[in-house]
Design goal:
The structure holds 2 protein chains of 2 kinds. Chain A is an alpha+beta fold. Chain A contains 2 helices and 2 strands. Chain A has one domain: Helix Hairpins. A two-stranded antiparallel sheet of chain A has the order 1-2. Chain A is rod-shaped. By secondary structure, chain B is an alpha/beta fold. Classes of the chains: A alpha+beta, B alpha/beta.
């Protein structure tokens, strides 16, 4: 089992790990004790992925530039 | 040409000669006349300038770009030439800035502008407002050249390509803030996975395009992750379709270099699928259209949600299956496990049976053995033993009785044999042999004594002869002639040195010995003493013979005897 804490995983890592955990559990060649741990880890990973997916939020901003063409700030963009 | 000249003259002498030169072709003899008007240099130059500017106020000239120079003033000076002629060309700073394509040496171009003169150097020149490569082929050729140069530098190498993040948090879009492109991108992002988007507005065509796009790419890279202006984790550089010239800004080297240097993964989406610009080669990923760029940028959220749901279902299913399987197995095993009583029944019965049989078996066994014992002991009585003893005694007695007669019989037999042999032993023959051998012995003894006597006499005579010779040769005879033997410590002294070293000397004469010297005390003459004689004789065999031999050389006559 990977040692990386789930909370530090990127979405992609969490996905890959979840897939691995599910596959391992489905193969059914792990002892019961471990399969419980796997299940718990799977649930955690699933929650992580779901959270990241629910974080989907659109926010569009345009960078405002000073006369030298350097970014000065942003203005929200709406209606596009 | 004629009309040109006519205009020239007309313009120059309009004030004074308007009547005379009404008709251009009429260049009659008046031209060379003394009253022919004079121009100052400035006048004529100005006239020429006016004519040229009037006649060639807007021209397009095709030619090859020659030497190009661009001083700090920002103006650009270059030549346009073909195989026979050269014309100077100038583009002022403002014009240069607006050019989509800058003239480069060797480039075949069509320059648009107006002719003018530079009176200060008697020069005419073309003020160029815009330059376009002559034909699409030329532009493409230039692009190919650039591409080859960048490729040689390794900017297109696959190893430089960065992997796009699976789910970027913030997407930076470099494009025009107004227009279909940004709308397409935002729509597609919204459909797939709404994200934070930072738009960096740039001109997407014209001379500002390349520098602005470059600055935008560099500007995004300069941001810090999570800062006030958070740095995006993915860039999209996008532009809608257009002519090759419209897209030209994305073929500029500075844009390509900025895209290649970008540490943020970059998707390029310029024009339509068929348009390929330089930035496409250096981008980490090329999208055929802006919409496609949005698709490359993010995964589809609801698909992922479905996927996560599915994983959840699989997880639960797998887990419950595991539990179900194990539960089933446990129940199966529990069923297969017999009850404790059942397990014990049979052994218990066996125990009962055995314990029941045990005393009986013991009794039976004892009885059986008792019977065997009584059977065995039945025959065991004293009478039986004594009978047997009597029998044996009887047998031994009868054997003993037979012993003596057998012995005497045997001895008698042997005696007879002995007698027979003794009779065969004949004494007369023995006596005969004895007599014959005795005669032979006497004969042989007689012969032996004869032979022995003869040999003995011979030897005796020889011995006597030798003794005589010895007597003659011995040193004692010499002593008789007046010589003496001197000895010291029982050794013969032959020289004066030895005699001087000796403590005592013994002198032997023919009739005895005398001791001389301090060790001897008073010289003793053992002249006629029997003891002295005996001593002398006794010492002779020990010392006299070698001494005599030693003396021999002193008597040369005798030496010759040997």
């Amino acid at each position: 089992m990977s040692e990386t804490p789930v909370s530090e995983m990127s979405f992609e890592q969490a996905m890959a790990e979840l897939e691995r955990v599910v596959g391992q559990l489905e193969r059914g060649d792990v002892p019961l004790e471990d399969s419980i741990k796997l299940y718990e880890r799977g649930a955690e990973l699933k929650a992580r992925c779901e959270t990241r997916l629910k974080e989907a939020e659109e926010k569009v901003a345009k960078i405002t530039l000073d006369p030298n063409g350097q970014p000065r700030g942003t203005t929200p963009v709406e209606g596009l | 040409m004629q009309s040109l000249w006519s205009r020239l003259f007309r313009a120059a002498s309009l004030r004074r000669m308007s009547d005379l030169f009404e008709d251009g072709p009429d260049d009659g003899p008046e031209n060379s006349g003394d009253n022919f008007p004079e121009f100052t240099v400035s006048e004529i130059s100005g006239a020429v300038k006016r004519v040229i500017e009037g006649e060639f106020g807007h021209v397009r000239v095709r030619g090859e770009v020659g030497r190009v120079s661009m001083p700090r003033s920002g103006h650009m000076y270059f030549d346009l030439k073909d195989d026979r002629a050269v014309i100077n060309a100038v583009s002022w700073k403002g014009q240069v800035a607006k050019m989509a394509v800058k003239p480069e040496e060797g480039m075949e171009v069509i320059a648009t502008g107006r002719m003018t003169t530079f009176p200060g150097q008697s020069r005419y020149q073309l003020i160029v407002e815009d330059v376009v490569p002559a034909g699409a082929g030329a532009l493409m050729a230039m692009l190919e050249k650039r591409k080859a140069a960048l490729q040689a530098e390794g900017l297109f190498a696959q190893e430089l390509k960065q992997k796009l993040p699976y789910l970027p948090e913030i997407i930076g879009v470099v494009t025009s803030p107004s227009g279909a492109v940004i709308r397409d991108i935002l729509h597609r992002l919204r459909d797939r996975f709404p994200r934070k988007v930072l738009i960096w507005p740039v001109a997407v065509q014209g001379q500002n395009c390349a520098p602005e796009v470059t600055r935008a790419i560099e500007g995004f890279n300069a941001m810090t992750p999570g800062g006030a202006l958070p740095r995006p984790d993915l860039l999209i550089v996008a532009r809608g379709g257009g002519s090759t010239e419209d897209l030209w800004g994305f073929n500029e080297e500075i844009v390509a270099r900025a895209a290649a240097a970008s540490r943020i993964p970059l998707i390029s989406a310029i024009g339509h699928e068929t348009d390929t610009t330089l930035i496409d080669y250096v981008a980490d990923q090329r999208a055929p259209t802006p919409t496609a760029a949005a698709e490359l940028a993010v995964p589809v959220r609801h698909e992922l949600l479905a996927w996560v749901g599915e994983q959840q279902a699989r997880l639960t299913r797998a887990m419950s299956q595991r539990l179900e399987q194990r539960g089933q197995r446990l129940r199966d095993l529990a069923r297969a496990l017999p009850r404790a009583e059942t397990l014990l029944e049979s052994p218990r019965q066996r125990l009962d049976t055995a314990s029941e049989r045990l005393p009986r078996a013991l009794t039976a066994s004892t009885q059986l053995r008792r019977v065997k014992l009584s059977e065995a002991s039945a025959g065991l009585r004293p009478g039986l033993l004594s009978t047997r003893l009597a029998q044996l005694r009887e047998r031994s007695e009868s054997q003993a009785a037979r012993l003596a007669p057998a012995l005497s019989r045997h001895a008698g037999q042997k005696r007879i044999d002995f007698d027979r042999l003794a009779m065969r032993l004949d004494t007369r023959r023995l006596v005969q042999v004895q007599t014959r051998e005795g005669e032979r012995l006497a004969l042989l003894s007689a012969r032996l004594s004869t032979v022995a006597n003869a040999g003995l006499n011979g030897h005796r005579e020889r011995l006597n002869a030798l003794e005589r010779m010895r007597q003659t040769l011995g040193y004692t005879e010499t002593l008789r002639r007046g010589y003496a033997v001197v000895r010291a410590d029982n050794a013969v002294v032959t020289g004066q040195a030895e005699a001087a070293a000796a403590t005592a000397l013994e002198i032997e004469f023919a009739d005895g010995r005398v001791l001389v010297g301090p060790g001897a005390g008073t010289p003793v003459a053992e002249a006629d003493g029997a003891a002295g004689q005996t001593a002398a004789k006794a010492s002779v065999p020990a010392a006299a013979k070698p001494a005599a031999k030693k003396k021999n050389p002193t008597a040369p006559d005798q030496g010759s005897l040997f």
